[in-house]
């Protein structure tokens, strides 16, 4: 699938303008500017704007020496060099956003997306950031965790006048640190963040890092009260959210993280949601190596398999890709890997609803009682063509090569392969398991399925059967 970033790069090469990713409003602000100093980043390689696959890009470092981050489902904001100052332009505006195919909403963001584009710069850079407000109410931008003069800290009323609709403000400061940071409004914060206004601000160290990184991924955690059947997030909700996102996307629409064995991967995670998220990476333990405080001294690195990224915090994970495969990366709060949670619904677990279903069907043809044996049916019934509420995703979704993955929300896959080129981020497909390396059935109880477990609405849940071809165990190889 062509990502937005790939598309932008293709557009840029096709002459559609380096600001192809900037909204119409922002583009108007830039017209007439000299773009010759614009950082091209990894846009230098020509690529055809063909539909479908975009050819791999060679691993390209920025002229200042850093490896650009890979913002999941996102993009990096181009800048213009003006007298040695890096000039960026953010435009706050309402946008139409897709969480995954089948679910869209009116959200607020920057330059056409939520999260807004990632700002990347280097310790020591002077940055000048224009902020244009195209919302219906005032806003500001706070540069979260960045050491700067007080008048640029962005708390409306405290540090600056609010940016009214139609106004453009400028922030200017010199970066005195490195690390993983964020930006977000500090005006009507509850609403503006609930609608999606946030972005990453990555400051690379001046020196090349002594433990070098081969792929550098980044995303923000967020939650949304987009109630089933609606098109606007509800900003008043504090706990019972419907959607849990990595960079405003839910599984299965979240980009995969691709890695080659032998590479060192960094995953930078920031949290602007209303919950703490224990982020869990399958495969081997990772090191927690940094935050908005920069890359920590090595004595502070910790090995973990799950790390809580608290509200307002940033955490950098690093690991060496040693085992090829498809490894899950997800929040360990089980409700945060579901979509479209239905809150306040009676609990049907263990309840035979077949009689109730018939009664309800008299009033609601096609009604399906669900949940007696668990919630797996929920994803299945939508696949069978039974409509749910409009603009509402199934609670769990996504099919892998062995069947339904039954995840949603904050879940994606780290795909480690032996045979990738450096800088190739294309989805390599599902992992091809070497023969004999997958968990397999060795027996099944023929009586367990009696009476057969059937979904109340008649869909068959196949009764387990004894496998006649059950492999004989070879005990001689197990040394006792
Ligand atoms: Cu979570």
TrEMBL record:
Gene3D superfamilies: Cupredoxins - blue copper proteins. SUPFAM superfamilies: Cupredoxins. Residues 98-207, 238-343 form the Plastocyanin-like domain. Residues 442-480 are annotated as: Disordered. Keywords: Copper, Metal-binding, Oxidoreductase, Signal. The keyword Signal applies. This is Tat (Twin-arginine translocation) pathway signal sequence. It comes from Solimonas aquatica.
